[in-house]
Fold:
Amino acid sequence: MTARAQRGDVFGPGLRLRLTFALALAGCGADSGAAVDAGPADGDLPREAGPDGARPDAALVDLDQDGLDDAAEQALAQAYLPYLSLSPSDGCARSGLIFRLRPHPAGGRCLLATYVWLYDRDCGSIGGIGAHDGDDETFGVTIDPTLPAPQGIRAIRAISHQGTLCERVSECGDLASLTSCETLPRAGAPWPALWSSKNKHGGYVNKTARCTTFGTCIDTCEDNASPTLPPLVNVGEPAHPLVRNLTTQGFITSANGWTSAGLSNYDPWGMSDFGGAGSVAGDLVDTAFDTPACP
Ligand SMILES: [Ca+2]
Ligand SMILES: [Ca+2]
Ligand SMILES: [Ca+2]
Structure:
């Protein structure tokens, strides 16, 4: 069985309709540039030709070869993004998001998005202790394309200060035994939120319980009246990257306000460190950020 046929088994022939439904509900119709020809609607049939000899998915563009139309991935990652609450007084706010989105590897009807929130700098804690160029903070989201946003944001998982004594894992959602996500108001709806701690950018969900001064290494999470909506770049999948240079791609440039030396021409799929932070390629494949699958 081919990989394509296996994906067909996972999602069945209704994937195109479900993603179309989700994008329409999310206000991402075809006129926004979101391709709704989003998957192997022909199930296990070979894409090269339909039963009548036609090419049913001729319009599908899937350069990262995960079975999802790449433009639909972009629209979904945008529409189902949690409310990103960056401290209004954060001193190192210059940032952008890269992501990969694919069918959930554990199966089911949902998708798994791994976002890496990249910053020009980490300002450090009190007195600038621990400040460094470059910062990478990762979170995972389970997206249910059969539900509109924000209901289709089924789970979020963040890990602050991963791999250090200050590491804190926080997770929320309505799958399995997860605690409901704390929300902030967006577009008239309570929207599942993710807080980025002031100056250090540690990621947290459920701020009230999980991002407390003494429950963390003095991290501070603050509500921002407006969600941060940074640039969002689909970097593709490990075996089929879409982006190998974030500067020539137009993301990390001086024109966009990035200043840190050493971040130019960064390859998100190379293994080098992102300035004084960790390897972004490592983040993109780190299963510690995987959220649960849907039934
Ligand atoms: Ca794709
Ligand atoms: Ca993808
Ligand atoms: Ca940081």
